[in-house]
Design goal:
By secondary structure, the protein is mainly alpha-helical. The chain has one domain. 72% of the residues lie in helices and 0% in strands. The protein is flat and about 35 Å long.
Length: 60
Amino acid sequence: MDGVLVEAVSTVEMAEALRASGAVDDLLAQIDTGEVALTGEGGLLPGLIKLALERGLAAE
């Protein structure tokens, strides 16, 4: 999967690489079964936002 993602240069290509790797299907299946929450405490979206903010702070 890493090799596919490293080569992606645009957002569209990144999304396609994730889809082609099966990562999107795996994630959506986990969301469908309730293994992964999208929102709320411990949810995927808040977690991604937190990671992005932490990375930004670490870069300063």
